[in-house]
């Protein structure tokens, strides 16, 4: 663990000594809660429809697949037509696209980004690498099954999938959301211990709280 | 003093109309921007869907009381601005709660939301929010300067602080508009308008492509939805002021729609033509180009 | 290139010149003479650019080979200096004062091969790997496949095809 994250005593500018524990100061430790659909069916249907038509993607590229997302914003493919937009902050995003292979180091960041997103949230795995390791199946530093670590709603196959495949994948995701089947956030909260065990098995220097809000 | 209670439902009706108009207009302007980039752009009803979705998010996190109040203040700024200026001149229904000194109040409300956001975003504790709000305040202050000068020029010109009376003085043909009777003030105000609309070239504060997205970094779910609501109302309310002060006001809803659209289009037009300024560049730009115009406009009067 | 080599050879005990292209050649330098050679090349011969610093693991010989690739921008020639190190307790003089960028390469080599560069800044900070708990992964005695199998869950049902046979069968199903 890095030195600046350790629990220590700090002397303030006014001479008062106090104890800081960065891991507890910066983050909340409350485990994720299950948020079941609570409203009447017709309201939930409306919300699900709105969620499916307004997918905000977190602009976080993990591997080479990130390069396939860029053409989606530009005139050739223009995903904005389908209500798909990119948000720069996890707080406002609904969809985390794991675009390609995930090294252990990136997995850590992906988990933190995912946990900061608000329920309901979706994960799409892009390319063979997220499914079974793809061409990095024998690498010393990349995970091979994304769904062991994050609840994946949809995989898009290919190495790499073309932007057309991504658009088709997003349309499939919309169908899942409309049908109310994309409950990854609740799944994550229910099987929280299992996910954490898997994550900690590969991330050896676990220097963050178990749940980053 | 008697208060006509019927004014309240009428004002709410104005608010409702302006809200929907704002949602559609911002989407329409976004579509125009997209077309300029040879894209199709978002569907025209996309803003409604985003709003429903954000209100429908199941979880949200608070960072403290001011974090709650930030979007509320911002919305208050937009709604207050709209409520205290006459939207449609000469209409009993849509002149809202305007009164004798409402011009000063309007100037205050333009700034109010930004200040509220500063407190709220500051409480979120995110460094990007703090950077964003610093940039935002610096830029809005620089843009506010020519606007205030122009507004003073107009108030001096018509010898009143009431928006209604200023509009009344401009009736009777286009040549009576402030745009032609005091072009310098209008020019200064329109330059300030560019700066306060958060569109390029002055959108470095909020632009999602910037590494810090700015003040709303930490806002999500219903908070963000509140801010989106404001983002529909506030520009329209601001344009209403501009319309009243400089472009002769509007006597009917169609005239209102056309004038607001054209004023909005001006900022969108500049936005697609020019690249983004950095904050220090934009402040310098305001001080060099817009402020002297404002000073000249006062001297002109 | 040849005349450069002749000139250098009068000053330093260099090995034979291996010319790969007219503008690319390699030469072996004893570890103790690396630094004066680099300084001479940089200041007198115009090789101002350190392109890269990398290592090769010669497991059978029990040696690491460090390669310092230098470029002379004006003459458009590239010269590689090879340094052979004993593999056990590998250690090399740091050149971060000569080229500050070398510090990053040295950090990487320290992490991936376990070669020590005493005095190099931030040498012991993690560079790419976080929380690595095995022998450095680029060493050839590190069994990557075994490590990957043990560490990361596999999804059953993965098949591997040889591309050549696969395409042959697909294009010529009859076997012609």
Give a verbal description of the structure.
The complex is a heterotrimer of chains A (213), B (301) and C (176). Chain A has 8 helices and 7 strands; from the N terminus they run ββααβαββαβαβααα. Chain A has 213 residues and is α/β, with parallel strands linked by helices. Chain A has a single domain, classed as 3-Layer(aba) Sandwich (Rossmann fold). Chain B is an all-alpha fold. Chain C is 27% helix and 23% strand. Chain C has helices at 2-11, 34-43, 102-112, 144-151, 163-171; strands at 17-21, 24-28, 49-58, 63-72, 77-86. Chains A and B meet through helix 2 and strand 4 of A and helix 2 of B.
In a nutshell, what does this entry contain?
By secondary structure, chain B is an all-alpha fold. Helix content of chain B is 69%, strand content 0%. Helix content of chain C is 27%, strand content 23%.
Which keywords apply here?
heterotrimer; B: 301 residues; mainly alpha; 11 helices; 69% helix; C: 176 residues; alpha+beta; Beta Polymerase, domain 2; 5-stranded mixed sheet; 5 strands; 27% helix; 23% strand; extended
Beta percentage of chain A is: 5-15%
> Which ranges of chain C are low-confidence, i.e. pLDDT below 50, for 5 or more consecutive residues?
none
- Strand line-up in the sheet with most strands of chain A: 5-6-7
Average residue pLDDT of chain C: 91
Total strand count of chain A, please?
7
Rg of chain A, nearest Å: 19 Å
CATH superfamily of chain C: NADH:ubiquinone oxidoreductase Nqo5 subunit
Evaluate the radius of gyration of chain C: 21 Å
Note the main sheet of chain C: 5 strands, mixed
Give the beta-strand count of chain C: 5
Q: What oligomeric arrangement do these chains adopt?
A: heterotrimer
Poorly predicted regions of chain A? none
Shape of chain C: extended
CATH architecture of chain C: 2-Layer Sandwich
Largest sheet of chain A: 3 strands, parallel
Itemize the secondary structure elements and their pairings:
The complex is a heterotrimer of chains A (213), B (301) and C (176).
Chain A lengths: L7 E4 L5 E4 L1 H5 L14 H13 L1 E4 L7 H8 L10 E4 L7 E5 L4 H13 L5 E5 L1 H5 L21 E3 L6 H16 L5 H7 L1 H11 L11
Parallel strand pairs in A: 3-4, 5-6, 6-7
Antiparallel strand pairs in A: 1-2
Chain B lengths: L6 H30 L9 H10 L9 H19 L18 H23 L2 H32 L4 H7 L8 H4 L1 H14 L24 H26 L6 H21 L5 H22 L1
Chain C lengths: L1 H10 L5 E5 L2 E5 L5 H10 L5 E10 L4 E10 L4 E10 L15 H11 L31 H8 L11 H9 L5
Parallel strand pairs in C: 2-5
Antiparallel strand pairs in C: 1-2, 3-4, 4-5
């Amino acid at each position: 663990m890095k030195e600046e994250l350790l629990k220590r005593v700090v002397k303030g500018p006014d001479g008062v000594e106090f104890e800081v524990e960065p891991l507890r100061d910066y983050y909340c430790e409350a485990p994720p809660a299950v948020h079941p659909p609570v409203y009447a069916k017709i309201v939930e249907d409306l919300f699900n429809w709105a969620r499916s038509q307004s997918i905000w993607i977190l602009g976080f590229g993990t591997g080479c697949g990130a390069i396939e997302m860029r053409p989606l914003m530009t005139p050739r493919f223009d995903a904005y037509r389908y209500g798909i937009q990119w948000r720069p902050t996890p707080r406002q995003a609904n969809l985390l696209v794991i675009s390609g292979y995930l090294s252990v180091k990136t997995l850590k960041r992906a988990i933190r980004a995912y946990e900061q997103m608000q329920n309901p949230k979706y994960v799409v795995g892009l390319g063979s690498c997220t499914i079974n390791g793809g061409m990095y199946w024998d690498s010393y530093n990349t995970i091979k099954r994304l769904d062991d670590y994050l609840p994946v709603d949809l995989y898009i196959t290919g190495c790499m999938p073309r932007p057309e495949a991504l658009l088709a994948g997003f349309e499939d995701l919309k169908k899942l959301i409309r049908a109310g089947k994309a409950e990854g956030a609740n799944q994550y909260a229910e099987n929280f211990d299992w996910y954490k065990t898997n994550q900690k098995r590969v991330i050896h220097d676990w220097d963050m709280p178990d749940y980053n809000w | 003093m008697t208060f006509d209670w019927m004014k309240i439902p009428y004002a709410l009706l104005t608010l409702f109309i302006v809200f929907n108009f704002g949602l559609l207009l911002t989407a329409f302007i976004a579509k125009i921007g997209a077309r300029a980039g040879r894209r199709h752009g978002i569907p025209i009803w996309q803003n409604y869907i985003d709003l429903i979705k954000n209100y429908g998010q199941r979880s949200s996190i608070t960072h403290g009381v001011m974090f709650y109040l930030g979007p509320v203040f911002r919305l208050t700024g937009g709604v207050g601005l709209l409520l205290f200026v006459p939207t449609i001149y000469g209409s009993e229904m849509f002149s809202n709660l305007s009164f004798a000194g409402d011009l000063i109040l309007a100037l205050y409300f333009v700034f109010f939301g930004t200040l509220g956001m500063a407190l709220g975003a500051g409480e979120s504790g995110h460094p990007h929010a703090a950077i964003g709000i610093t940039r935002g305040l610096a830029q809005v202050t620089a843009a506010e300067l020519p606007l205030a000068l122009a507004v003073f020029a107009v108030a001096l010109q018509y010898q009143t602080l009431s928006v209604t009376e200023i509009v009344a003085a401009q009736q009777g043909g286009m040549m009576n508009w402030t745009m032609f009777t005091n072009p310098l003030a209008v020019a200064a105000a329109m330059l300030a308008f560019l700066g306060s609309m958060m569109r390029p070239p002055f959108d470095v504060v909020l632009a999602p492509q910037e590494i810090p997205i700015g003040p709303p970094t930490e806002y999500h779910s219903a908070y963000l939805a509140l801010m989106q609501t404001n983002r529909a109302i506030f520009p329209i309310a601001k344009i209403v002021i501009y319309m009243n002060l400089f472009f002769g006001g509007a006597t009917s809803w169609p005239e209102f729609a056309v004038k607001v659209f054209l004023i909005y289009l001006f900022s969108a037009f500049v936005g697609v033509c020019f690249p983004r300024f950095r904050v220090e560049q934009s402040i310098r730009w305001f001080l060099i180009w817009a402020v002297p115009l404002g000073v000249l406009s006062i001297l002109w009067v | 290139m040849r005349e450069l080599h002749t000139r250098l050879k009068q000053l330093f005990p260099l090995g034979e010149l291996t010319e790969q292209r007219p503008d690319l050649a390699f030469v072996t330098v004893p570890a103790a003479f690396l630094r004066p050679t680099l300084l001479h090349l940089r200041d007198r011969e115009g090789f101002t650019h350190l392109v890269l610093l990398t290592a090769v693991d010669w497991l059978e010989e029990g040696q690491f080979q460090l390669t310092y690739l230098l470029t002379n921008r004006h003459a458009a020639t590239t010269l590689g200096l090879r340094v052979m190190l004993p593999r056990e307790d590998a250690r090399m003089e740091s050149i971060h004062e000569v080229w500050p960028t070398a510090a990053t390469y040295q950090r990487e080599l320290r992490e991936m091969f376990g070669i020590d560069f005493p005095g190099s800044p931030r040498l012991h900070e993690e560079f790419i790997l976080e929380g690595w708990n095995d022998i450095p992964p680029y060493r050839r005695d590190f069994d990557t496949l075994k490590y990957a199998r043990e560490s990361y869950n596999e999804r059953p049902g993965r098949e591997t095809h040889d591309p050549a046979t696969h395409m042959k069968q697909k294009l010529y199903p009859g076997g012609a």
